[in-house]
Hints:
Layout: H1 2-18, H2 42-54, H3 59-77, H4 81-84, H5 95-99, H6 112-120, H7 122-125, H8 128-137, E1 138-140, E2 162-164, E3 170-172, H9 174-180, E4 186-188, H10 190-195
Antiparallel strand pairs: 1-4, 2-3
Amino acid sequence: MIDSILQDALHVHRTSVLSGSPNPSTPDYTSLLSLPSSSPSPLSAAINRAIQLAGFKTIAVQAAVLYTTHALLRWQTNPLPDTYAHVPVWLSPGARQLEVPHALWAAQLVWPRLRDRVVGEPQRYARDELAFCYARCLRIEWKGEAAEPGMGMGPGFDDGIFEIKQGGEIGLTQRFEATVRELGAWGLEREFTTRWPELGDVVRTEKE
């Protein structure tokens, strides 16, 4: 189900871009925050549906996953140097991903060596059980504060994840975006490596 949502989103977005529609460099966070938008993005909305279905827990993780998934799908839609520049270095597909057909959700896994394992042994790892456990356990280290304390705009704004940009759109704060792009900021709860101990050497668990 998660993969079908992402596949449909990629197909619709690719068709839209080929027809001349914009390919915005940043996601539309309104669907994630359940806010109205004057120019809703079908790609961002579809990614958000996958995020909610998968069960990513915190608003920080949800915002970070929307950011990284949007960057990767945008590049896959239109593979140019400009779109590739927005993909975090550690999310770039390795040789195994380029050679072996795999589920689209597996390409979104944070750690390159974890992606190699899942792609290389699909019968063992490329299953819903791993996808849902990964989503449930994924964490990002963030203890931010709003640039303007007391903004009173709710979760995501009051802890420095989101801000209102100059054009009036919602975006990530510079500090949070920098954190998202740092591989060392990501981790998994130990539930994941308890279930798959043989993957403990290819991920980072909390408090390591």
